[in-house]
Amino acid sequence: MRKYFVLVLVFFFAFASLAAAAERGTADEAQVMVKKAVAFAKKNGKEAALKEINNPKGEFVKKDLYIYVLDLKGTCIAHEANPRLIGKNFMQIKDSHGNPFIKEIIDTSSKKGFGWTDYYWSHPVTKKNEAKSSYFEKVMDMVFICGYYK
């Protein structure tokens, strides 16, 4: 009986680990989400896009992925995960290794219109500093960003 109980526990924890891993977004999903948000903004306009992005039950939230939007000076104009950040300038933010990744996002989006950037950020669940990558695209006077933990 004890052997059966141990076996059940092993399977339970293995399944729980797989389920937790499945809740993390991927690079492809982050890129698709940005492209979807950009298409929404082009079709419906800036105000409608920002309103939908700020909606915690909206279409721009999936697993641990969400969209946030910066203006071309680095000021947050939409942030589903933390609306208190709206109006704050992110340009001076650096990751735990001193990388000014927001400045990189703004500079690259102004030159190329899109790209990826890698940085290290605290995971909200594990509280560990983890490698993260964000895809971003510029449309109008906004930069749409979605990051995933690697």
Overall domain count = 1
The total of beta strands comes to: 7
Strand count, sense and barrel status of the largest sheet are: 5 strands, antiparallel
Helices, by number, come to 4
CA distance, first residue to last residue: 40 Å
The coarse silhouette is globular
The percent range for helix content is 25-40%
Would you list the SSEs in sequence order as H and E? HHHEEEEHEEE
Uncertain segments of ≥5 residues (pLDDT<50)? 2-21
Strand fraction band?
25-35%
Fold blueprint:
Blueprint: H1 2-22, H2 27-44, H3 46-53, E1 61-62, E2 65-66, E3 68-71, E4 76-79, H4 101-111, E5 114-122, E6 129-139, E7 142-149
Antiparallel strand pairs: 1-2, 3-4, 3-7, 5-6, 6-7
Helix pairs in contact: 2-3
